[in-house]
TrEMBL record:
Keywords: Coiled coil, DNA integration, DNA recombination, DNA-binding. It comes from Shinella zoogloeoides (Crabtreella saccharophila). This is Recombinase family protein. The lineage of its organism: Bacteria, Pseudomonadati, Pseudomonadota, Alphaproteobacteria, Hyphomicrobiales. It holds the Pfam family Resolvase. GO terms for biological process: DNA integration. InterPro entries: DNA_bind_recomb_sf, DNA_bind_recombinase_dom, Recombinase_CS, Resolv_N, Resolvase-like_N_sf, SSR_resolvase, Zn_ribbon_recom_dom.
Length: 554
């Protein structure tokens, strides 16, 4: 039985040697490598052209691209060529409309764009003309294709989320420092885990160490400086490319390095973050210690140019970001002046007065070398001596001891309450076992209530013990070594290196007319002395600063 041919198809058949191009597409690269779809599409389109008398002049093959948008190189080349002024071909032939577009709006838009260039789109499996009924049918087909695409995407994502929940890697680019290993095989599919790559992991640890501590000859380095150093020393990314600022920032903020790989964190097309409820966190081996990672996160926030200007961190002026005017609290910035003999003098000047005039602040200036020497000398002689450090730390130890005594009392009370709850439970269990009481609803509710009390008390006890505050004093040897190290590092070396050490122990240098006050935190001083380890939780002193007598430098 002969199939009737539409009037539109008869017109096309009557036209001699229409020039045609084929557009062939599959959705994934895996299909392009192993599937037979593209060869089959090519064969059917070729036979269609022969049967219609079309001359097939070119083909555009898209191996592994979704048709839900137009971000396809071959597709764009096809459209660009089809709309050229020399009119290189007459028809674009596809196996089905879903090969061309899986978005109903996009399909209609590009069909009309081709029509303006007098080029027609023909589907060999869905031959439709241009009358209103067939146009409507084409639009309905496009809607079904779009729906099917979205449904497939939904089910694929659901399967990938479940795969991630089971601890398996879904196949996105592997972060620096890791490699994939086969965990198990299910039929023809290989399930993979992330494992640490020993060589690349050392590069990751180096990046974090340079950002927090430097290389021992400088202070903590900024991201740009780390990039320069890594590229200069021959380090490369996994793809063999040079490191960049964006790459380094992504590494420093990637929580995979503390053992938390997050799947489905953002939309792959829009790159917008998805709600946290849709995230799937998969445990992986950690490369970086959590405390170190959180310290980096905090430093990144503080170094954000919107929070701290770059000159404060890496600038060539020692007290930029530390020195402030005693009158208005504004920062002291560098100003230069030239004497009659041509000598250039550098001063710290109140920025508010320099920027807005004396009506805002009367302003004050001090020679840069004079203020630098005053601060270094004051710290060296009045703070960084064993006796002074021991005196400052004694107040912390005393407050900690008082807090520890309170915690010990709390532990004792909770331990007693826990013992009483467990004793009551044992009595009830004994009564039931000995037949003295029957397990009715009232007794069952009482046992449940006692269990809840016991679990609550146990949780409180565990929390108190976890937050227990050590009361051990810092040994005299460590105090002496720290004082010696600090005196050396704040006085010698490059400015960023010295500035980093100063910022680790002082918060502010207040410049007044007749005195300079140096303010710092006692707990920051203790953390610097113990290598940055948090050995206490939240011990508050009556005086926040180590400059207890407000008598730093005159």
């Amino acid at each position: 039985m002969n199939r009737p041919i539409s009037h539109d198809t008869e017109i096309l058949s009557a036209m001699p040697a229409l020039r045609a191009v084929a557009y062939l597409r599959v959705s994934t690269g895996r299909q392009a490598e192993s599937d037979l779809s593209i060869p089959d599409q090519r064969k059917q389109i070729t036979q269609y052209c022969l049967s219609r008398g079309f001359r097939l002049v070119a083909e555009y093959v898209e191996p592994g691209a979704s048709a839900t948008d137009d971000a396809r190189p071959e597709f764009q080349q096809l459209i660009e060529r089809a709309t050229d002024g020399d009119h290189p071909f007459d028809v674009v032939i596809v196996h089905s409309y879903s090969r061309f577009f899986r978005d109903s709006f996009g399909l209609e838009m590009y069909i009309r764009r081709l029509a303006k260039a007098d080029v027609r789109l023909i589907s060999i499996t869905q031959e439709l003309g241009d009358d209103p009924a067939q146009v409507m049918m084409r639009q309905v087909i496009a809607l079904f294709d779009e729906y099917q695409s979205r449904e497939n995407a939904k089910h694929v994502l659901r399967a990938m989320k479940e795969n991630a929940r089971q601890g398996f890697y879904n196949g996105s680019p592997v972060p620096l420092g890791y490699r994939t290993t086969e965990a198990e095989r299910r039929g023809a599919k290989s399930k993979k885990h992330l494992a640490i790559d020993p060589v690349e992991a050392e590069t990751v640890r180096l990046i974090f160490r340079l950002y927090l501590e430097g290389d021992g000859r400088s202070g903590p380095l900024g991201i740009k400086e780390i990039v320069k150093r890594l590229n200069g020393q021959g380090y490369r990314t996994r793809r063999g490319a040079s490191f960049g600022v964006g790459t380094l920032h992504a590494i420093l903020t990637n929580r995979v390095y503390i053992g938390e790989w997050t799947f489905n964190r953002r939309d792959s097309r829009t790159l917008k973050n998805k709600p946290a409820i849709e995230h799937v966190v998969m445990p992986v081996p950690a490369i970086i210690d959590r405390d170190q990672f959180e310290a980096v996160e905090q430093t990144l926030k503080l170094r954000n140019p919107k929070v701290t200007p770059p000159r404060v961190t890496t600038g060539p002026i020692l007290l930029t970001g530390l020195s402030t005017c005693a009158t208005c609290g504004g920062g002291m910035t560098l100003r230069t002046g030239t004497s009659k003999n041509g000598t250039v003098h550098r001063y710290y000047t109140c920025s508010a007065a320099a920027r807005s005039g004396k009506s805002v602040c009367k302003g004050r200036s001090i020679r840069m070398d004079t203020l630098d020497d005053l601060v270094i000398k004051g710290l060296t002689e009045r703070l960084l001596t064993p006796d002074r450090l021991r005196e400052i730390l004694a107040s912390i130890t005393s407050a900690r001891a008082a807090k520890a005594a309170e915690v010990d009392g709390r532990v004792t009370r909770l331990t007693q309450e826990l013992h009483e709850a467990e004793t009551r439970l044992k009595r009830l269990y004994t009564m039931v076992e000995d037949g003295i009481a029957e397990m009715d609803d009232i007794l069952r509710d009482r046992i449940t209530s006692l269990k809840l009390d016991r679990d609550r008390i146990q949780a409180s006890l565990d929390q108190v013990r976890t937050n227990a505050i050590p009361t051990d004093a810092i040994p005299d040897q460590i105090i002496a070594e720290f004082g010696s190290l600090m005196r050396e590092n704040i006085a010698n070396g490059d400015i960023p290196f010295r500035k980093a050490w100063l910022k680790s122990i002082i918060d502010e240098v207040i410049v007044d007319d007749k005195q300079v006050r140096i303010i710092g935190s006692k707990h920051a001083l203790e953390r610097a002395m113990t290598g940055g380890k948090k050995i206490y939780q939240s011990v508050r002193g009556f005086e926040r600063k180590w400059r207890t007598r407000r008598d730093s430098n005159s």
